[in-house]
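Known limitations

Structure tokens in this collection are predictions and should be treated as such. Users comparing against experimental data should check residue numbering before alignment. To illustrate the layout, the record for ATPase, PilT family is reproduced below. The input appears on top and the generated tokens appear beneath it.
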Amino acid sequence: MDSIVDGSLRKLVESGKVMGRVVIPKGAVDYFYSEAKAGRSVGFTGLQELDRLAREAPNGVTIEVSAEVEGESYERLKLSVRDYALRRGAVLVTSDPIQAQAAQFIGVKVLYTGMPREGKLRIEEYFNEKTMSVHLKEGAAPLAKVGRPGSWLFVKLSDRPLERSELEEMAREIIERALTTTDGFVEIDRSGSTIVQLGDYRVVITRPPLSDGWEITAVRPIAKLKLEDYNLPEKLMDRLLSRAEGILIAGSPGAGKTTFAQALAEFYASRGKVVKTIESPRDMRLSPSITQYSKNYADMTELHDILLLSRPDYTVFDEMRDDEDFKLYVDLRLAGIGMIGVVHATTPIDAVQRLATRVELGMIPSIIDTVIFIDSGQVSKVYELGITVKLPTGLKEEELARPVVEVRDFLTGELEYEMYTFGEQVMVIPVGQRRSSLSIEDKVSRIVPGAEAEVRDGALIVKLPRRANLSSRKVRSLKKLAKEENLDLRFVPRED
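Generated tokens:
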């Protein structure tokens, strides 16, 4: 059955390496039918392969379906196939190494087809060294996202719209490769959608009725960064090493959150820390010392027990979306495990608010101590959280003093937000900041983290670190700052 799904049986028949009578178990047909009815990709792929096998079989090959081979389950069906081959003296064609070993042990002749496949997938032809992702949809021209996180553009790869048959063939090829190689697996298989991890590629396949047509999205990381590549301030590096144990990494989609989380995981692992991850799907590219768990193959209770008993120093949770995810993060953090959570947020304070709606306000600083906001692939803001009892800013009656969670800019120490309860509401109040109290050097470092500045000869000289991410928005901000100070603007490399 595995050799049907991965296409190896059909290719042997087409090449003339298998001739004569080819027997297909009726139980296999029934299995593929039931899986296809449930919307799972293995069913569609199996039926498509059987159809192609019947249509493309050359002269001298007879395709038969045997009702003698049945099974109540997938594994019982494999057992029935082995017994049938033994009784009939037939050759068993399989790409399953365990099935091959078991069949050979009882005396069945085996043609094993499970060698790793070679050659490029068709979808890989759409990628080059700068391609982040490829977006293919039936009836539409193929598109690619080219560049790097925070600085990319969509490129049309062809003017010709793709046909459904092309998408179906690419999907079959991707699933076949994932089932027959050691670096690929089907992560999620639902009615209407399939998510595959294949080497560096994360592939999302959708089909009707979930989507209005066949669609394939393939994403590939174009760079694996180290934490040192981010040119983080020494103060932040010291915090990550000594004090940060409840970390939120936030940012908008495509900003580079997972890339930074990956670098942080490797940073801790390189310093002798035990690091594990929770992912859905498992698409982070990490060293073998870091164990990666999938949410799709275990419930939250099982993951909680595993992590609580194995006691990692840090667990990276990529990405946290619903109440169950946040509950697991909170439970493990309160149990003393260092936690790094990745969340979607358009502003840094949004990440804190997502937690504030799920736990008591006074617990937040015990759960989250550091919020790192990623913008355009770089760290653009870092918050630290603390709690105190005081009269919230803006209130005047002393009897209204209460516990207040203070959200401060970690690098400058400025208070930016206060969070407190008023009645039954959680208030998140921005605190007015005196921007004029900041030095011009501080203002530059806020715009471009890691940059240094000095004023000399009537010019604002910005010293850029290696691999600085200087987007057009940041350049405009620097020009505005220089204009406000009546200075020219110059850029020079920073001497490290």
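For this record: The chain has four domains: 2-112, 122-219, 227-433, 437-493. The mean pLDDT is 87. Please report discrepancies through the issue tracker.
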